Amino acid sequence: MDDQLITPVSVTRHHDHVNVDVDADAEAGKQATQLVAELEAEQPLPANNFAFTPSQLHKLLKQRSLAALDVFGGLRGLVLGLRTDVTTGLSADEASLDGTIKFDEAVAAAREDRVPVLSAVEEPLAAPSLTFPRAESHQQFIDRRRIFGANRLPRRRQKSFLKLMWIAFNDKLIILLTISACISLAIGLYQSLTADEDTSNIEWVDGVTVVAAIVVIVLASAATDWQKNHRFEKLNERQQQREVTVLRSGRIQQISIYDVMVGDVLHLEAGEVVPADGVLIQGSSLYIDESSITGETQLVRKTAPADRSRSRAFQPDPFIFSGTTVCRGVGRFLVLSVGEYSAHGMTLMSLREDVEETPLQAKLGKLGKQLILFGAVAGSIYFCILFIRFLVRLPQHKHARPTQKAEAFLHIVMLAVTIVVITVPEGLALNVTIALAFATTRMLKDHNLVRLIRSCEIMGNATSICSDKTGTLTQNKMAVVAGRVGLESGFEELEVPVTGASSSGSSSVTKLPSARQFMSTVSPQVERLIRESIALNSTAFERDDSAGAEFVGSSTETALLKFGRDHLGMGRLGEERANTPVVTMLPFDSARKWMAVLLKLPNGRYRLLVKGAAEIVFEYCAFIVSDPTYQVTIDRLTEPDRASFRKTINDYAVNMLRPVAISFRDFDEDEVFLHPDDDPASINLEWLASGMVFIGFFGIRDPLRPEVVDSVRKCQDAGVFVRMVTGDNFLTAKAVAAECGIYTAGGVAMDGPTFRKLTPSQRDAIIPRLQVLARSSPEDKLLLVTRLREMRETVAVTGDGTNDALALKAADVGFAMGLQGTEVAKEAASIILLDDNFASIVRALSWGRTVNDAVKKFIQFQFTINITAGITTIISELVGDSIFTVVQLLWINLIMDIFASLAFATDHPSPDFLMRKPEPRNTPIINITMWKMIVGQSIYQLLVVFLVHYVGWDLFNPGTEHEIEKLQTLVFNIYVWMQFFNQHNCRRVDNKLDIWYQGILKNPWFIGVQLLTILGQFLIIFKGGEAFDTKPLTGAQWGWSILFGSLTIPLGALIRQVPDCLVLELFRGVKKLFLFVTTPIRNVWALIFARAKERSGDASQGELGPVGTSGISSNNALVHQTELSAANPPPREPNHIMSDTESQPTLNDNNSSSLAENSTIASISEKREIDLQALIDAAKLGRLADKEMLEIHPRTLKNDPILTPRSDLNLPPSQDPYILRYFIRTRRNDARGSISRSARRPTVPARATWVEPSRPTPARTREQPRRDWISWEGLLRSKRR
């Protein structure tokens, strides 16, 4: 029966196991026969040095069955046919290969277990066309790269410059203006050609000038779009770049993902995204999420083909596909397909799409559509007025030629269209696009790799940051500096002793020996036990074969390995691991907090080595190595011993050391395996981890980054609430947070198990004060992020593990670690921190605010031109004396759209950006401060233009046509210079006076735009002539122009001194007046719409029939649904947490029963509701509960209620002044803020006393704050603030 079960004829894959039956055997036989026929019919590739072609390997992976694998000779046949080796990988010196291997020869050699015979390569008829270019970067694997390709997709074809020009031209207004200009040009040419000799023959100039202006606008728009696409393409290439681990020439090394070749042996670990397709060679508890290609959320267990002889129930599934995610375990696989031939590559080739629109772009697009509608209506009304006037005056021009009448009509059309063009801000979307393109490129230099463009602008208004500890706040340069081995032995490398007393419990402080001194006294047996626990129970590896090679892996493991090399006589990792066979491994998991490995000893027994968080591993132990200086003596742990070790672990944590423990236990074979032929990979090591022997633990120090304290302070100055969310020890996390400035007076520290036991209302009450969440699981982080977003916070979160992917996705902006982060975390993140530094998050915050400010600057500048140019043109034309011509308006439009977009979108961040609070969600783009400046500057510019144009007739008294044109040129020149200086004035959108605070000389684009504007204006005035209807001005007139223009800067300073509240009251008064005047009209419209709605309602009721029946049926359905809910009540809160993550891949294997038992026990224990108020009262007295960990900062005010109600539920808690008043302590040690905040401190005790809760039960604790802020007293207090 067993032989029938392991017959490798057919497989039917069902999640992570294979069910073999007769029907499946028949189907697999048909597929294998069909595969053989397809392989025989396929034409061989010319000059192929390998037994297989990319097409043949793709067909193998497509069938993903063992029967198809047997057709290729199994794993051995693939290895021989691809001319590689499973133990050493590809040769690093391979370039060109001699000879070839036939398909049949590779299969026969594999089945006969011999070396294949090489054949001569068939030279193609056109050999020169098949030669591979011998570039310097491709000296390796020339033939392999030529046949199977490189592991990169063909570059996406970008839009050509002509295509971008067509897109820029394909605008309704531009097209309409072009048609009008072409007709005007045709009529002008006709007039010029038919004109008399003594008359002017330059009527065609206007049409040519308008066409030329349109061409310039289209070229400028296309150029900026091309530059933007080029920058985004380079950014996308940088996103896909990463390092993978391969085996070449017998050495493990890291190479670029683009250098992976077919035939490579790749190393897989939990958290990685598979870079290529292949077949598994060996694996340990390897589970892969294949939902990206199958849609199934259950994890698939992968086993090598060689494991099927040992399996009793399951057929192996060895096929690995690119784009899938390794969720558990480790393994190695043989690469069969890369690049566009792989499964993920084919999917990406068919799903290439454009950059997603950002929220700011969408908001500006909506604003632009509204302005277009307004401009179209205004332009239509304007055209109708001019057209009526044209018809009225038509009898007065009886003697005019038809061409002159047509030209006058076209002038009206072009003027109306130009009004729409000048009043519609086409550059809004262009501005934000350019700003994002420049910001993302420059952020890359600041170690921020932006994956989602939208995250750049969202980060500017982040209100809360949930940061990890290791590597983000610390340097990630871990080193073992202390340790305790056995009952009373240990070492320290610190100047100040870590523990307050010796391990034996005496009150005197004893200086422990150094690590070198202590390890010299340890017996060889214990030393070997520690060395094996460090070297074998690890997934790290050495970068090369040198004596002092750098270790590659997690920072904790590399610190222990360095300790083993320096003090335990540990040799090369490869030699250490080759000497002791590893049966199976349980990799580290962030929820479990430990890892294990099972070894087979020479005496036939098995040894389990466990390594992980000291406070967790220690509780699994019942025995201890009593005397490490004498062999391996074991004693039972007593309660005094446990108390002593727990105290030492706490001492380590308080001193910011990470305690990592090691333990072991030996087993007989029958205790490990139920049957002799059981698969070792199916052993549940979690079941074996109990009653273990404690060896000791090590204190690992990770120093803080020197810039992290200043970075945290900058975030707090910017109104961003910083929290530490870490899986580290509670005391360690609290100490590091206090050192960073995150954990301060008024704040609360809590551990993950306590946090997840809280009810939703209790979480909402404590989250505004929560600053440290230690010992947290990825689910805790996800729950915290979700609740913060529901509180209207804009959340940024950091993560590095596979399980952090859900929290990274749930956050508004997810930051993944570029150095220590897994590929799964990077795929889920919005931004990748290339240096894993918290300071880079602060720089991302600055860039986000820079983008938002760039858009506001542009809008403030553009709306001023929209208002002034539109009003000036409309009024002057209606009066009968046009101030600006069509060509002049198009030049103004070019300055407004293209030039201003480049000038404002390319600014650098300023430190001032981090000295203001973030803007809440759905805040309007244009605030009252901007409207104040827009209206003020518009009034000034309109007064200047109209006064100079109309009063100038009395001052200058132009008597000739030349003088009249010169006066019109003066008005045009003054208007352009006012826009020139207003660009400087609009560099600031708040009420501060320093408009050059960002450093004007640091932005060459702004300087270039200014110079180009000056140069263009000089050319237009002096050489514009008939094209622009200008005349050269005198020096005095240039002086008046620059004077009127420069006055916009002092005027802007005066406008900024006007209080915003007065302007707001003025606007409200205007609104009330408008509503009062239009009340009759609005009442009439409301009556009309109400009657129309009643008629439509009566008609719909007649069509749908009586309402009573449907109401009864819906009520019955509701009653039925209520009965079902009562019969099946919803789960309690702990189970509901899983609903947030139910879409994540689940595990379906032998371990599922243990996981179900653990979850059941956890849910039962979590059903007990925590008395949160009692916890807070105990924490105020300095008492910590045995199970629930909650601590209040010792400098917190004594009358601080902690559970502070929110004054406004529409306001994020981090921006609520009612809550922030208790965090005044954040500036206590800051000299800059102590003076400004000390004046507010006397008000705190009174308010704190007023809200002091005095309820003993948590239920009333949740109710009382709600009554407080709804009461009149609470409302008056909030108004007074």
TrEMBL record:
<keyword id="KW-0547">Nucleotide-binding</keyword>
<keyword id="KW-1133">Transmembrane helix</keyword>
<dbReference type="InterPro" id="IPR004014">
    <property type="entry name" value="ATPase_P-typ_cation-transptr_N"/>
</dbReference>
<keyword id="KW-0109">Calcium transport</keyword>
<dbReference type="GO" id="GO:0016887">
    <property type="term" value="F:ATP hydrolysis activity"/>
</dbReference>
<feature type="region of interest" description="Disordered">
    <location>
        <begin position="1125"/>
        <end position="1159"/>
    </location>
</feature>
<feature type="transmembrane region" description="Helical">
    <location>
        <begin position="204"/>
        <end position="224"/>
    </location>
</feature>
<feature type="transmembrane region" description="Helical">
    <location>
        <begin position="1034"/>
        <end position="1053"/>
    </location>
</feature>
<feature type="domain" description="Cation-transporting P-type ATPase N-terminal">
    <location>
        <begin position="71"/>
        <end position="189"/>
    </location>
</feature>
<dbReference type="GO" id="GO:0006874">
    <property type="term" value="P:intracellular calcium ion homeostasis"/>
</dbReference>
<keyword id="KW-0460">Magnesium</keyword>
<dbReference type="InterPro" id="IPR023298">
    <property type="entry name" value="ATPase_P-typ_TM_dom_sf"/>
</dbReference>
<protein>
    <recommendedName>
        <fullName>Calcium-transporting ATPase</fullName>
        <ecNumber>7.2.2.10</ecNumber>
    </recommendedName>
</protein>
<feature type="transmembrane region" description="Helical">
    <location>
        <begin position="412"/>
        <end position="439"/>
    </location>
</feature>
<dbReference type="GO" id="GO:0005886">
    <property type="term" value="C:plasma membrane"/>
</dbReference>
<dbReference type="InterPro" id="IPR059000">
    <property type="entry name" value="ATPase_P-type_domA"/>
</dbReference>
<dbReference type="GO" id="GO:0005774">
    <property type="term" value="C:vacuolar membrane"/>
</dbReference>
<dbReference type="Pfam" id="PF08282">
    <property type="entry name" value="Hydrolase_3"/>
</dbReference>
<comment type="function">
    <text>Catalyzes the hydrolysis of ATP coupled with the transport of calcium.</text>
</comment>
<dbReference type="GO" id="GO:0046872">
    <property type="term" value="F:metal ion binding"/>
</dbReference>
<feature type="transmembrane region" description="Helical">
    <location>
        <begin position="1005"/>
        <end position="1022"/>
    </location>
</feature>
<keyword id="KW-0406">Ion transport</keyword>
<dbReference type="InterPro" id="IPR006068">
    <property type="entry name" value="ATPase_P-typ_cation-transptr_C"/>
</dbReference>
<keyword id="KW-0472">Membrane</keyword>
<dbReference type="InterPro" id="IPR044492">
    <property type="entry name" value="P_typ_ATPase_HD_dom"/>
</dbReference>
<dbReference type="InterPro" id="IPR006408">
    <property type="entry name" value="P-type_ATPase_IIB"/>
</dbReference>
<dbReference type="InterPro" id="IPR023299">
    <property type="entry name" value="ATPase_P-typ_cyto_dom_N"/>
</dbReference>
<dbReference type="InterPro" id="IPR018303">
    <property type="entry name" value="ATPase_P-typ_P_site"/>
</dbReference>
<feature type="transmembrane region" description="Helical">
    <location>
        <begin position="925"/>
        <end position="951"/>
    </location>
</feature>
<feature type="compositionally biased region" description="Polar residues">
    <location>
        <begin position="1138"/>
        <end position="1159"/>
    </location>
</feature>
<comment type="similarity">
    <text>Belongs to the cation transport ATPase (P-type) (TC 3.A.3) family.</text>
</comment>
<dbReference type="GO" id="GO:0005388">
    <property type="term" value="F:P-type calcium transporter activity"/>
</dbReference>
<dbReference type="InterPro" id="IPR023214">
    <property type="entry name" value="HAD_sf"/>
</dbReference>
<dbReference type="InterPro" id="IPR001757">
    <property type="entry name" value="P_typ_ATPase"/>
</dbReference>
<keyword id="KW-1278">Translocase</keyword>
<keyword id="KW-0812">Transmembrane</keyword>
<keyword id="KW-0106">Calcium</keyword>
<keyword id="KW-0926">Vacuole</keyword>
<dbReference type="InterPro" id="IPR008250">
    <property type="entry name" value="ATPase_P-typ_transduc_dom_A_sf"/>
</dbReference>
<dbReference type="GO" id="GO:0005524">
    <property type="term" value="F:ATP binding"/>
</dbReference>
<comment type="function">
    <text>This magnesium-dependent enzyme catalyzes the hydrolysis of ATP coupled with the transport of calcium. Transports the calcium to the vacuole and participates in the control of the cytosolic free calcium.</text>
</comment>
<keyword id="KW-0813">Transport</keyword>
